[in-house]
Amino acid sequence: MEAVLAFITASILPALIKILIAIVIYYVGTKLMKFIMNVTEKAMEKGKVDAGVQSFIKSALRIVLYIVLAFIIISYLGIATTGIAALFASAGVTVGLALQGSLSNLAGGVLILILKPFKIGDYIVACGEEGTVTDIEIFYTKLSTVDNRKIVIPNGALSNSNITNVSHEEFRRVDLVLGVSYESDVKTVKNILADIAAKNEMVLKDRDINIYINEFAASSIDFGFRVWTKAENYWTLKWQLMEDVKAAFDANHIEIPFNQIDVNMKK
Prior knowledge:
Elements: H1 2-46, H2 51-76, H3 81-90, H4 92-98, H5 100-115, E1 123-126, E2 129-136, E3 140-144, E4 150-154, H6 155-159, E5 163-165, E6 171-180, H7 186-199, E7 210-216, E8 221-230, H8 234-251
Antiparallel strand pairs: 1-2, 1-5, 2-3, 3-4, 6-8, 7-8
């Protein structure tokens, strides 16, 4: 019995104490990390650093701090960090090959921050997806869609794809193509569209309002209708114009052609 107690006192108890202290180090370390993150965030906000750069730096700093904390705990537990470093060095090529995609995403994130094709809050279309940019992190950029879905796009793919920044400019042009029957009077149609544009408050009156014949199609005269509005009003105005056009055409007996099929049956 004395031998067992001696073994516990000499071997197990010190190990348990070390583990408990390591847990305390981890707890204190995470609190210190949170403090450092908060100080860094406030400093960047005070320095008016771009929101995208802030997101990227915070993401990178969090990873670095966790690595440092892990090395501190490993060192305290008596595990040789030099051996671990050597192991990482010898496995560098293998890790590099395995992390090619991640390194590509990291490089893509850096390019996005340098070239700034978009920033947090912009509405973009890229990689077959579209939405409002909510985060630009080390490896991924996050979008929020209009139907409240979150889309995560790898920065590597994003930096190598065509990006349409819909909200980059303050103003956008609404383009409509409206077909009417060949029996319709051209001047009447143009006057109706001009009246619709003049009455809508979202249409910018100090910019060109274009109403023109776009094409003589197979069964219709296609009118082009172009007006300018503030970027945030684009969709609201487009939907409103479509409703107003339909109501005005109906009120003035302007026919909107549609495909028809005549079926003849032989007895």
